[in-house]
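hiii so um. not sure if this is the right channel but i have a protein structure encoded as tokens and i wanna go backwards to a sequence. like what aa goes where. can anyone help
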């Protein structure tokens, strides 16, 4: 009888879980972006509240400020990390629209003539661990936010 040998291997990092979808630049499209985010994260057992609020804001901005007739906006979600052994999981939310000429400004108190401006990005800044803007050759930009999540 030969002894059995067991080999233990380190678990490989989990593959990135991603979602990318084009949505209509309407209030319905922005709502669908939020609902898809919640469903995608819930399927993986990840918290959804902050991600849903960030997605709603970024998608709402794409509809309100980035809309070009006949052009959709893109929602991208990417979950990386394995979450095992106390490891971290990072969610990256990306919303791309067709108005690369209109970049978001740093959040701050709204100017008197624009009492509603800037409040949404204050929310993104408060909830996200990191956020920013990537510019592409016109006419495109991507506003992204990252959350460090615990499963």
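sure thing!! here u go:
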């Amino acid at each position: 009888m030969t002894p059995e040998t067991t080999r233990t291997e380190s678990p490989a990092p989990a593959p990135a879980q991603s979602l990318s979808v084009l949505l209509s630049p309407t209030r319905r499209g922005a709502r669908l972006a939020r609902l898809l985010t919640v469903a995608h994260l819930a399927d993986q057992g990840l918290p959804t509240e902050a991600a849903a609020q960030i997605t709603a804001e970024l998608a709402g901005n794409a509809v309100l400020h980035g809309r070009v007739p006949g052009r959709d906006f893109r929602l991208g979600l990417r979950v990386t990390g394995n979450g095992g052994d106390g490891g971290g999981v990072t969610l990256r939310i990306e919303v791309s629209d067709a108005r690369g000429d209109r970049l978001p400004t740093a959040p701050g108190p709204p100017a008197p003539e624009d009492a509603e401006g800037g409040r949404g990005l204050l929310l993104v800044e408060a909830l996200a661990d990191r956020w920013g803007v990537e510019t592409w050759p016109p006419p495109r930009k991507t506003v992204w936010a990252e959350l460090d999540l615990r499963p």
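oh and The chain has three helices and five strands.
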